[in-house]
User: Fold this.
Amino acid sequence: PSSSTAEIDRTLKKVSEGVELFESIYDKMQSSTNQTQKEKLETDLKTQIKKLQRLRDQIKTWVSGNDIKDKTALLENRRLIETVRGCFYSYSCYINLLYSKWRSSRRARRR
Assistant:
């Protein structure tokens, strides 16, 4: 199925807004000192990532097709999504690492 320029433009706009929202939530989470709020924001980030992931899948479909001649904007937006996602997963791994270190140090202190 052929995709319209308007549909692609709408998708690229959603990517831009989604990345902005992701970064905004990420910054709030970084500056929050309340653990409950941090956890809620982390859930919001995961939700946002899933939305961006769906947009990325749509972009991949367009890139692999022959309808669109200039795929520069599509490829840039795909890379943007992958960079943001990488940032979140790196952060998530980092938090898990800190948490496990914290738990093991608490266990050691109890002995």
Observations:
- The mean pLDDT is 83.
